Model the fold of this input.
Amino acid sequence: MSVTMGQVKIYGVQEPLRAIRNALSDVIHSCVVDALQFPPNKREHRFFYLEPDDFFMPEGRTENYIIIEILMIEGRTIETKKKLINLLFERINQQIGLAMADIEICILESPAYQWGFRGKTGDEAAINYKINV
Done:
């Protein structure tokens, strides 16, 4: 059985992030489809809008600074995860116009049995695409 689950959380200052939300979601999804071989109709993105006073950021970042967290079932190769990160940096910079310094990415993985969806644990659910890429 092959399973994959992925969710993306995007954090940023409310006004600048809302202005690019749809385009950013499209870019992130294209990277996930290309790097992780997700089906084109599988998109789980959540945007977290923060007030400037609630989002402390490293020196040298602008109000456009975003943090992207990608949650997924473990099983992908290091090369695949690096490909995803590099595609995100490249495409967000080129297509959205965010500076590389304003993009932070973290991939978080956990075993399939720690996921639950459609009434089953991730290691018991039947999914029609793979993670060993």
Remarks:
- Helices lie at 14-36, 78-96.
- The first strand starts at residue 6 and ends at 13.
- Residues 31 and 87 are 6 Å apart (CA to CA).
